[in-house]
Amino acid sequence: MPQLTIKINGYPYLLQCEDGQEDHLHAMAAQVESRIENIKALGNQSGESRLLVLAALLLSDELHDLKAEMEKSAGSKPSAKAAKADRDIARSLARMASRAEEIATNLERP
């Protein structure tokens, strides 16, 4: 399993991914970095963990809007599969927020 380092908000993170997924992981990191840059441009620079949580929420909001748009164009209610995916995403975001808080706490310690 390849290990690679991504940088988000100037901080390096060593991550593992499946073979062949390196470019995808870099693309995802670039999306997070883009959201963080947008947040910083608004002047909301109040800590690393807060930036990461806000970036995750922005991405989640975009995903929610895309799903709603797809469902509206399909003219159907969310499927059980879509509902499960939403729950999985919510759990992942909660884990990411928790991890971001943990990282931020460790960075703030002398």
Layout of helices and strands, plus pairs?
Elements: E1 3-8, E2 11-16, H1 22-41, H2 48-74, H3 80-108
Antiparallel strand pairs: 1-2
- C-alpha end-to-end distance: 33 Å
Give the beta-strand count: 2
Q: What is the topology, as strand order, of the major beta sheet? A: 1-2
- Beta-strand portion reads 5-15%
Shape: globular
Low-confidence stretches: none
- Our Rg estimate from Cα atoms comes to 16 Å
* Tally of contiguous helical segments: 3
Describe this structure in words.
With 110 residues, the protein is mostly helical. The protein has one domain (3-108). The protein contains three helices and two strands. It has helices at residues 22-41, 48-74, 80-108; strands at 3-8, 11-16. α1 crosses α2 (48-74) and α2 (48-74) packs antiparallel against α3 (80-108). The longest helix has 29 residues, at 80-108. The N and C termini lie far apart (33 Å).
What descriptors fit this protein?
single chain; 110 residues; mainly alpha; 69% helix
Give a summary of the structure in a few sentences.
With 110 residues, this protein is mainly α. It is 69% helix and 11% strand. The chain is globular, with a radius of gyration of 16 Å.
